[in-house]
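Q: Sequence in, structure out?
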Amino acid sequence: MIAVALVIAFNATMFSNGTPPLSERSSRRLQMAKERIAAVEAMEDTGYNVEGGFGSRNLSEEEGGVMEYTRRRHRYLGDYTHKDKSDDFSLFGKLSTSFIYFAFWVFLMFPNWFWPIGRPGIALGGGLSMVVWRFILRTIGHGPYFNAERVIIMEPLFLLFGLMLTTIYIEKMETGGLFDKLRESLDDPVNWKRSAKIMAMSTVGSAAVMNDSVVLIFSGVVVDLCVRHKVANSLPYLLSLATTANIGSALTMTGNPQNILIVSLAYDDIGWLEFALNMILPTVAASLLNAFMMFVYYGAELFPGSSGFFENMGIMFAGNRTPEMLAQEHAFYARQAASKQGEENEVHGWSIWSKIQAGIVCLFLVFFALGYDVCVVSICAGAVLMVIASYKRQHWDPKPINVQYDEDGNPLPPKKTYDMEGNEIEPEDEELVTESETTLTEVDYGLLMLFIGQFLLIGSFDDTGVPQAFFNLTMGGCANQMAEGACVYWFVMIVTVLSNLASNVPVCQMLAATFPFATPYEWLQVSFSATIAGNLTMLGSAANMIVAFQAAKVGDRTFTSERHAPFGIPSTIGCLYLGTFLLATWHFSPECSVKLGHCGDAQ
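A: Exactly. Output:
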């Protein structure tokens, strides 16, 4: 509450004299956007088939140039561009639809307070309830048709499935392989170092692939480390994983689903390197601030035996130890020495399969950086690993030996069977074990159900126009200059609130329709604020729910909404405003739209 009050006071101080007047640049851009939309709508159909895409961005003047590209794009992106249907709702339709959304929002926030069916079941039940209710509203004349399949955004689902497939095969292909080496690197006898390693791995991993996949496979690892070290409170370590996964994912356009959607819907081109270079300073600063707050807030758990903040700093930077920490280190190394007995003959280096895994991961990241379709790359990587793992199991791994023994431990000869005529029946060959029976069952299909249910709930809620009305009402005079001057701080707070009410992916989808000609710099601010906003509440990010869901599957239910909020809210507010200031001060992306002709050097 103190953090929220400080934010309100800070914004009230900045806008004590009212919102700043519309600048000349913003007025010019607003006028040019209206002219462009009117010109595009007045264009005749060229007969171009947009089913396979809307063509190149670099159309010649004879082909219609930027205007023709814009018209094709608006037609083609019907699945992602929000269409205003709010006028087709009656007041009863808007209120009832909003009530259903917020009811299931509460159910998702506190799943154990109601029916014990889990978040995937609650989300899917809410989505189906919304489909049925929208049909009833349309039948009785209180609402428009609900095109449910259009609000389910497929790219995040494809990407999440591909990343789950890839990471599961990296994890399951080989005992002692690449995944086990990464897992062992996180272990440390010192609590704060173990937390720091988790945060570093989560930050880098989320930037390299996607935050959801990182927390999906490492949530169980973190719980296992807590059990191994007999930690009384696993919450600091789970928060270390979840919060830094969200922060680290802000660095690249492939770090999370909303960044992928933003780059797809942005009017101007935003390259992978351009995105990363703009985001590196605010992301690093937010990561350091989050780590500092973690060590301060959970100092008692991470620095056992310490007397307070200054001793904690001495432990971190001067190498001091408390008696409790020394006891933990001695116990850790004693366990290590005991586990190594009898393992002298084992090979601890990199096997051929670990090298293949590392090579595929490197190629995976290279194709990401080169701008190839991230969904195709991730699914192809998973498919390649699946073929390799299948070959390894069938032709490389030792076959299981099914031998029975007598009471004295002597092996029994295999039993023989005979037909009616006394002829011996030859045993049949063992059936091959398929991937459908093994690793593919490890894919978390419940998580995909959770996303689908949320898309249905949020898509219907967006149709009412309530989130858009909230945005325009709260932004006031800053609505048309949302990333200029002091307005940018108010803007990121509104995006943060909306991201936790309607989830960050649909908020980005809604803003793409509300501001179709937003500049690359404005989209970077949207990306950073919507991503960092995921740490504000439990439902602010899918990564948070994945951590809670995966930890609960292995018996750890400490990561709840009530326990997340005391750290999540102040950390999010601090990281959000620090990163926003740095991004507003130092950025390389233009604050104008080149394709709209708003920049001075536009052709």
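The radius of gyration is 27 Å.
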